[in-house]
Request: fold
Amino acid sequence: QKEVEQDPGPLSVPEGAIVSLNCTYSNSAFQYFMWYRQYSRKGPELLMYTYSSGNKEDGRFTAQVDKSSKYISLFIRDSQPSDSATYLCAMSAISGGYQKVTFGTGTKLQVIP
Amino acid sequence: DSGVTQTPKHLITATGQRVTLRCSPRSGDLSVYWYQQSLDQGLQFLIHYYNGEERAKGNILERFSAQQFPDLHSELNLSSLELGDSALYFCASSVDNRNYGYTFGSGTRLTVV
Reply:
């Protein structure tokens, strides 16, 4: 079983829809939770990061962490065709004195005009 | 442009050969991370350097090595290349040792034939 599980998709939604992207994890030591967006043939770009449980909002994006359920989500409101990309979740925990980051495999999102 | 520069963008080489990938971190960033991304494995952490010193190793093969130079640029050396080494290789940088909130480069696409 992978430490971080992410549905690979693809997920297709119409423009203007609310998108929900999710990851589950098994390591309860994860403290920081991140979402990256990766366009085709580009490097991942950090969208948001949160520490521990709770919500964080940035424009049309909301990140949610539920540590009790080991579940994190990224919501995109009023989705746009420019949001079409692969979304990677990432989490970090201290292991052997080092903050180790583990990435999910990514969910491919397509927003249809 | 993320500020992290990777060269070359594409590399095609034969099995058994050796290649060097280069990364210049974002100005002011002291940490450089190398990642391998393949379709089935997602982003796999290879190695982390901070201010010239190796900080952590991930799933890096013995055929692979890296270093960070005094000017903070880093090189990833891949030798005795195999078909399975074909992948995208990303470099990321961050200002310090905290492993969240990386800035990624655009990657080097390596094809071993």
